[in-house]
Structures are given as structure tokens and as C-alpha cells.
Amino acid sequence: MARTASPETHTAPPSSAAAKIFNYPLNAWYVAARDHEVTGKQPLARTVGGVPLALWRDTQGRAVALADACWHRLAPLSMGRILGDQLQCPYHGLRYNASGRCTGMPAQETINPSARVPSYPTIERYRYIWVWVGDPDLADPTSVPDMHQMDDPGWAGDGETIHADCNYQLILDNLMDLTHEEFVHSSSIGQEELSEGRCHVVGWVAV
Fold first, then answer.
1. pLDDT tens sequence across 89-104
2. Is 47:30 a contact under the CB 8 Å cutoff?
3. Whole-number pLDDT of residue 67
4. How far is CA 7 from CA 26, 51, 68, 117, 200, in A?
5. Residue 27 and residue 138: Cα distance in Å, rounded?
6. Looking at residue 106, what DSSP letter applies?
7. Nearest alpha carbon to residue 87 among 43, 122, 121, 38
8. What is the distance in angstroms between the CA of the first residue and the CA of the last residue of the chain?
9. Nearest to 100 by CA among 131, 67, 72
10. Residue 177 has what pLDDT?
11. Contacts of 86 (CB under 8 A, 6+ apart)
């Protein structure tokens, strides 16, 4: 029987200093979905940091993230069924618990002790499901970015997701570079004062 390999916990540096596309830093919390998207009815397929995931909730309502590939034939678990506290593979019916351990194999009583898939730490906070796809021993809940505005009644939001068919670095560049507002958003939030204002840098963080 084939088995899935655990994902790398560290990424290699870019091939040259001029490289524009960098690998994903895996030892970090990523938003995998909004809280309402992950249910106990149907698993959700998402890819985080290049890692395909199957997201679902157990009977306690806790969000679970397993590798989206069955240990046996690599069938996508996100296409399977949620059976209480287990996720069933859509191909041969193998069942997995929240830790990724195979708990049942149809037509046989003995379960191969190596039958398991990677399980990733999750945290539900600020209306998001956060997933850590790197070294699980480094998954510190206190390092989840502060986004209290997402569930603070003093703030407002539409709660929708915008899908952008591009590299994530372009999204970061767009959101961090406010100098484009005057020209791209001239009919709404853009104004000449943006270019005239003085910038004051209070600090920076290297990632």
C-alpha cells in the first residue's frame, strides 16, 4: 500500500537574489477559511502554503485539518464523507479521526498501524479558521495575528471572500502599497493628498 509523505517543514531559499517568487514560509498561521465555511456536513478542500487540506468539524464543533490525500491511494479526502468524528475516504472507505489516524478499513478487522495522514494544528479565532502547516511543535496559539476587528461589534465588514487568480505576493504588494490609491481608486477613496502627505516609518519586521 502506498502512503503519503509528510510535507516539508522548511522551504529552500530562492535560487538567486533576483528571484521574484519565493516559497511559502510554512511555520506560520494561515487563514484557511471563514468559520462558517467549515462544517460537520461536508469537508472543504483548501490549499495552504502549497499543502492540500481537507477541512471539517467533529461532533464537538472543532475544526480539523487533514492532508487531502488518503493514505491508501491518495484519493482526495475532501471528496469523502464526515461520519461523526471521522472522515471517510471516497474511494475505499477508509476512515480517519481528527489526529489523522486510520480508525477503520472496510472488509478487514486488522488496521495497518502505519495507516495515517498528516493532521495540522488549527485555531478558530476572529471568525477565521487558522491552520499551521509547518512544524507542529512550533504552533504557538499566541502568535496568531491580531485581527480583533473581524469580530468586534465596533467594526463592520461584509464577510465575503474575494478570489484573485494571482500569486499571493501580488496581493500583499497591493494591500501594503497605498500610493496607488490616488490613481487606481480616483473615483472613490483616491485623492491628491495621498501623494502630498509625509510618510513616517515607525518600524519594520523581516519575515
1. 999 999 999 999 999 9
2. no
3. 98
4. 10, 7, 12, 11, 41
5. 7
6. T
7. 43
8. 40
9. 67
10. 84
11. 95, 96, 97, 103, 104
Give 47: exposed, middle or buried? Use CB within 10 Å, 0-12, 13-18, 19+: exposed
How far apart (Å, rounded) are the C-alpha atoms in residues 94 and 72?
8
Residue 147: how many CB atoms within 10 A of its CB?
14
- Grid cell 490613481 — which residue? 183
CB atoms within 10 A of CB 19: 10
Distance CA 50, CA 26 (A): 9
The pTM score is 0.77
Which cell numbers in the block locate residue 115? Answer: 495507516
Span 135-150, mean pLDDT?
A: 94
- Check residue 129 and report its DSSP letter: E
Rounded to 5°, the CA angle 107-64-130 comes to: 155
Contacts of residue 55, Cβ cutoff 8 Å, sequence gap at least 6: 32, 33, 37, 38, 43, 44, 45, 46, 63, 64, 65, 78, 129, 131
Coil, helix or strand at residue 29: strand
* pLDDT category of residue 167 using cuts at 50, 70 and 90: confident
Torsion angle, alpha carbons of 103, 105, 110, 112, to 10: -70
How do the residues of the chain divide into helix, strand and coil, expressed in percent and rounded to 5? 15, 25, 60
For 46-84, the pLDDT digits (tens) are 999 999 999 999 999 999 999 999 999 999 999 999 999
